[in-house]
């Protein structure tokens, strides 16, 4: 019976075009986005190197990463951009309004106070330069374009400059130290800046966490322009969906690649498959990216009892499909940026979903014939936000 189920699912999740066609269609779609879209392939300024300068000894670089499931804060050194202090806080999906950002500012200031206390520095002697990364697309005026991953935009925030809003929220906090919010950038751009600052030599950068995105540079008028790809929008022309895929607000109506590759979506597809085939699952089982990692590492067998072996094989089927489309998307970028003829295409990446599943990484590299070389850039969201702040001085 289990072999019959797996046979059905292999057919259900099989792509309906070969790899080369998907790469070609992906490149064409990216080019069209670059010319026409206001929510994908978004120019984000010049690709600049780090401008080294001295900071006041009492000034600190404070980075915030507003992700799809976690808020991260860090103090980053201004010389080698190492994280010297960090804290995290879970984020619950829902409506994003002014209070969402007020809570971020308040929590960040509390963590800054803890940093001062742990390092025996009087608050009044410190000033913080704040840089923010955001995992959702913004206009050049820092207005929210759209949201996914279970979040939606409150009416009061439509047309609002988020940088100005954050500055106002931080100014409302009563503390002896000073906070100056210097900028807000997409998290994929932050990862690219970190890659560039460390001289990692990656050809472009990738995020596969709760969502999926990439950052690349394109030459325009003898300048290198950073592009926030908003890669989750890719795939309308070539992704074949199954009857188990998500078509609701969990992923958004127009994020094809994200629906089949991201940590917010793939675990929910697994849940739908198990429900459909009436596979018993413990009520304590939480379907998220960590679960898929644990299934492959045989850490959560008890949730599925005697059907664990079946669940593990289903998980592999879902991740093979994710790898196929993710690998093709990366090769589409490689062709677009003129990197496809290189013997190896180096891709710096972050995101816990991809980072924690070795099988996902291996299959992504395998589908491209070994040409893609994934390179993990730890804490690069936070470091990139600090680099952006540092360069703005």
Automatic annotation (TrEMBL):
GO molecular function: ATP binding; D-glucose binding; fructokinase activity; glucokinase activity; mannokinase activity
CDD domains: ASKHA_NBD_HK
Keywords noted in UniProt: ATP-binding, Glycolysis, Kinase, Nucleotide-binding, Transferase
EC number(s) on file: 2.7.1.-
One Pfam family, short name: Hexokinase_1
Biological process annotations from GO: glucose metabolic process; glycolytic process; intracellular glucose homeostasis; mannose metabolic process
A GO CC annotation given for this chain: mitochondrion
Keyword Transferase: yes
UniProt cross-references to Gene3D superfamilies, sorted A to Z: 3.30.420.40, 3.40.367.20
Hexokinase C-terminal domain boundaries: 205-387
Keyword Nucleotide-binding (UniProt): yes
Hexokinase N-terminal domain location: 60-195
UniProt family annotation: Belongs to the hexokinase family.
PANTHER family: HEXOKINASE, N-ACETYLGLUCOSAMINE KINASE
Entry protein name: Phosphotransferase
Organism, scientific name: Lachancea mirantina
């Amino acid at each position: 019976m289990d072999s019959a189920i797996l046979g059905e699912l292999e057919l259900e999740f099989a792509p309906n075009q070969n790899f080369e066609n998907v790469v070609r269609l992906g490149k064409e779609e990216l080019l069209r986005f670059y010319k026409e879209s206001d929510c994908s392939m978004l120019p984000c300024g010049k690709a600049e190197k780090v401008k080294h300068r001295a900071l006041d000894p009492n000034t600190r670089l404070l980075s915030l990463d507003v992700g799809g499931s976690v808020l991260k804060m860090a103090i980053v050194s201004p010389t080698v951009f190492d994280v010297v202090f960090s804290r995290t806080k879970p984020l619950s999906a829902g409506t994003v309004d002014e209070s969402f950002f007020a809570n971020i500012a308040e929590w960040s200031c509390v963590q800054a106070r803890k940093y001062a206390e742990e390092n025996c520095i009087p608050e009044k002697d410190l000033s913080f330069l704040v840089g923010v990364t955001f995992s959702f697309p913004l206009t050049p005026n820092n207005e929210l374009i759209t949201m996914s991953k279970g979040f939606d935009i409150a009416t009061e925030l439509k047309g609002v400059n988020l940088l100005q809003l954050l500055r106002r929220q931080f100014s409302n906090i009563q503390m002896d130290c000073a906070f100056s919010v210097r900028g807000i950038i997409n998290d994929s751009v932050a990862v690219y800046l970190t890659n560039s600052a460390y001289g990692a030599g990656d050809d472009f950068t990738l995020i596969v966490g709760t969502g999926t995105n990439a950052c690349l540079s394109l030459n325009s008028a003898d300048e290198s322009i950073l592009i926030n790809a908003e890669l989750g929008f890719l795939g309308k022309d070539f992704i074949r969906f199954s009857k188990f895929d998500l078509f609701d607000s969990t992923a958004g109506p127009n994020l094809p690649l994200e629906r089949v590759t991201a940590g917010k979506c793939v675990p929910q597809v697994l849940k739908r498959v198990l429900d459909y085939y009436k596979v018993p699952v413990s009520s304590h089982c939480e379907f998220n990216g960590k679960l898929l990692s644990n299934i492959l590492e045989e850490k959560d067998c008890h949730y599925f009892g005697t059907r664990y072996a079946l669940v593990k094989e289903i998980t592999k089927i879902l991740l093979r499909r994710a790898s196929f489309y993710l690998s093709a998307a990366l090769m589409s970028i490689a062709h677009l940026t003129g990197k496809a003829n290189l013997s190896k295409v180096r891709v710096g990446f972050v995101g816990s979903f991809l980072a924690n599943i070795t099988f996902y990484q291996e299959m992504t590299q395998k589908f491209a014939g070994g040409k893609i070389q994934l390179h993990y850039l730890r804490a690069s969201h936070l470091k990139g936000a600090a680099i952006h702040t540092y360069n703005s001085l």
